[in-house]
Amino acid sequence: MDFLNEISLIAPCGMNCGVCMAYLREKKKCPGCRELDINKRISCINCRIKNCESFPIDAPGFCFECEKFPCDKLKRLDKRYRAKYNMSMVENLESIKTYGLEQFFANEKIRWTCSKCGGTICVHKGYCYSCGEPLCKRI
Questions:
Q1: Per-domain residue ranges for the chain?
Q2: How many CB atoms within 10 Å of residue 102?
Q3: Distance, CA of 110 to CA of 106 (rounded, Å)
Q4: From CA 82, how far away is CA 89, in angstroms rounded?
Q5: What does each of the 139 residues of the chain score in pLDDT, given as a tens digit?
Q6: SS3 for 22?
């Protein structure tokens, strides 16, 4: 799971693009939030968080660096992802801020690696993109 070691796959909002269904799909694979807008859905291109005026365009920063963190946009996204996918953008960002990217990547590898085949579990689909094994709930 080398993709988990790529800072370019961690969006400003804390999303790990490496476990996103758009990144994992075979056709028209999304390159991730920080990359060029080729093959991205229009909603991703126009993302209000990625395009936030408070976000420094020339630096690969994160929302936790903003004085408004967590802003209303991020709170809404976080609430939706907590409810639908059992994942929190705010928790991801707090983990990066507190423990650093290296530890965040290590935790993500544990969380999103299929125990059956070692493939990647999709946050949106809840199963491994390699073998179809469902995400098993960890305690």
A1: 2-112
A2: 10
A3: 7
A4: 8
A5: 454 457 788 999 999 999 999 999 988 888 888 888 787 888 888 888 887 877 655 556 889 988 889 999 999 999 999 999 999 999 999 999 999 988 998 899 999 999 999 999 999 999 998 898 887 654 3
A6: helix
How far is the C-alpha of 132 from the C-alpha of 61, rounded, in Å? 34
DSSP output for 110-124: HHHB-TTTS-BBPTT
Q: Which two tokens stand for residue 41?
A: 């859905």
Q: Which residue, 104, 107, 10, 100, is CA-closest to 49?
A: 10
Cα 78 → chain centroid:
11
- DSSP-based helix, strand, coil % in the chain, nearest 5: 40, 5, 55
The token pair at 137 is: 């709930």
Question: What CA–CA distances, in Å, run from 87 to 4, 75, 78?
Answer: 16, 13, 8
Say which amino acid occupies 122. Answer: C
- Token pair for 106: 């290590």
14, 28, 32, 58, 135 from 42: Cα distances, Å? 20, 13, 13, 22, 28
